[in-house]
Design brief:
heterotrimer, A mainly alpha (98), B mainly alpha (115), C mainly alpha (314), A: 85% helix, C: 314 residues, mainly alpha
Chain lengths: 98, 115, 314
């Protein structure tokens, strides 16, 4: 059972890291600001969710697990709002040079 | 190899880097930023010394940790004051750096301040 | 081995980000790099074994200092061109680089020649900790063993605020700081400013309460409160406070006053300044922390906002 949970953690965290990596590559290589924002926000949120999911089997109790999920929720809300703010600014002022 | 020493070397590099930034940047805000870098480097040095003092079942000497916490707060207060003074300089003279020579119509420092 | 890779990678990362912050041309990029550097340094502090300092560094060093610098940068943007054309020449750059390299080398020699075995006050602190009834040794040091230093630090915050307020012009004294924020009630920032502060306040209270036995404490809690207030101000949901209000000024000095009061009480009731009466040690510490959390939150927010620039009533 423990080995299975360890495998789950490793697979989930690796998948999360892969998504973070993909989002960063998108930020560096995509042409327009809006597409870069989209890649970064979506991939980072998903990546964090997978990392949190992977760590959940290792917490000391349900309260700690709830705290981790709360962290993910707060990051999603903040990151989503900030990307929306930047997108509105881009629409008003035009593209930003990389 | 003990990674604590690596953090000490990194702290020394940060202090040197920050000091270079303080000396070479003409813009005041960049100087304040680089000065903060020096500060965090010094705190990291404290952290290295605290880590080496791990004993009695805890991960580090708590006294330097307390000093660093105090230091971070004081460093922020000093930065806030410095930034406000830089903004005041900008609103009074329109410059964001110190001029090399005072302009011809500079106010006499001994005169009472204008409202 | 894995620890070496992890710590080595982290060190290289924050050194690179710090170098970006110093050497980049654009001020905005430099400040963003500084904020990222502050967060990475928080991770470094976890690696060095202190979560209290990690929380403080990430919140104060990275977060609030970054907010302060960003606010200033947006106002100094128009004077950037004059500054850029007057960069110092390569000769003085070289001399400065030489001097800084010398300093770095001296510090590296210092780090590598620290004494073995390392002297430590940890055994003394852990020995005296049970008498304070707090479980977190850093809180014990801050509020019981070195209470005098922490008290002076809360006073320094107030002094910095007084110095900043001293930079107002006479006409604006006692007014509101910062520009008028035009609220967009249905906008994204307003949404965030309505959603986050309840969480923020709750987590701040939790940080203050749990700081007695676990990593946390009043500085981290106060910073979170200040951040929530700044967010609400930025979204335009509330206007900047009038700085001549008595309530505001009482909130600013509440922490230092309670701290000083309990310290002086020690002279009367117990054995000296900041000697908490035995049996009431934890209660005194919690009272000081509670009052200080409020004061630190208010003072940090006002330090970021700056001196008043608008009259109290338009």
């Amino acid at each position: 059972m423990n080995a299975l949970l360890d495998l789950f953690t490793v697979v989930m965290v690796c998948a999360g890291v892969f998504f973070f990596f993909a989002g960063s590559i998108g930020m560096l290589r995509l042409p327009t600001t809006l597409s870069r924002l989209h890649a970064l926000t979506k991939a980072d949120n998903l990546g964090l969710g997978l990392v949190v999911l992977g760590i959940l089997p290792r917490v000391d109790g349900p309260l700690d697990g709830l705290k981790l999920v709360l962290v993910w929720f707060l990051v999603q809300v903040s990151a989503g709002t900030v990307s929306q703010l930047i997108a509105v600014l881009v629409r008003k002022q035009g593209e930003v040079e990389p | 190899m003990n990674t604590t020493e690596w953090f000490g070397i990194a702290a020394a590099l940060l202090i040197g880097l920050g000091l270079f930034g303080v000396i070479t940047h003409p813009m005041l805000l960049r100087k304040i930023l680089a000065f903060n870098l020096v500060g965090t480097g010094v705190f990291l040095l404290f952290g290295v010394i605290a880590r080496r003092g791990a004993a009695a079942g805890i991960d580090g000497d708590p006294v330097p940790h307390a000093f660093v916490i105090t230091g971070i707060v004081v460093a922020f207060s000093a930065s806030a004051l410095a930034v406000t003074m830089a903004l005041k300089l900008k609103s009074d003279t329109g410059e964001s750096t110190f001029p090399d020579d005072p302009p011809a119509d500079a106010p006499d420092p001994a005169a009472p301040p204008r409202p | 081995m894995s620890e070496a890779i992890l710590h080595g990678g982290l060190i290289l990362l924050f050194l690179a980000v710090a170098a970006t912050s110093v050497f980049t041309r654009d001020t905005f990029s430099a400040i963003t790099a500084f904020i990222v550097y502050g967060l990475l340094l928080g991770l470094a502090w976890v690696a060095l074994g202190s979560i209290d300092v990690a929380l403080t560094e990430a919140a104060l060093g990275g977060g609030i200092t970054g907010a302060l610098l960003l606010r200033a940068a947006s106002r100094l943007r128009h004077a950037d061109h004059a500054a850029e054309t007057r960069r110092t020449g390569p000769a003085s750059h070289g001399l400065a680089a030489l001097a800084c390299a010398g300093l770095t080398a001296a510090l590296i020699v210092l780090v590598l020649s620290l004494p073995h075995p390392a002297p430590s006050l940890a055994p003394l602190a852990m020995e005296a900790l049970p008498a304070t009834h707090v479980g977190n040794p850093v809180t014990g040091v801050l509020l019981a063993f070195r209470a005098w230093d922490t008290f002076l630090e809360t006073v320094v915050l107030v002094l910095a605020l007084v110095a900043i307020w001293g930079l107002t012009s006479d006409a604006m004294w006692g007014g509101r700081p910062g520009p008028v924020q035009i609220p967009e009630p249905d906008g994204n920032l307003a949404f965030l400013a309505r959603l986050l502060p309840p969480f923020g306040v709750l987590i701040a209270i939790y940080l203050f309460w749990v700081g007695a036995d676990e990593p946390g404490g009043k500085f981290q809690a106060g910073t979170l409160l200040a951040a929530m207030w700044l967010l609400t101000l930025q979204a335009g949901l509330i206007d900047a406070p009038v700085l001549s209000r008595l309530r505001l000024r009482l909130a600013i000095v509440l922490g230092p006053l309670v701290f000083a009061g309990i310290g002086l009480l020690g002279i009367v009731v117990s054995s000296g300044l900041f000697a908490y009466p035995p049996g009431f040690v934890k209660a005194c510490i919690l009272l000081i922390e509670a009052a200080s959390t409020v004061s630190i939150g208010v003072t940090l927010c006002l330090l970021v906002l700056g001196p008043p620039e608008r009259p109290a009533t338009p």
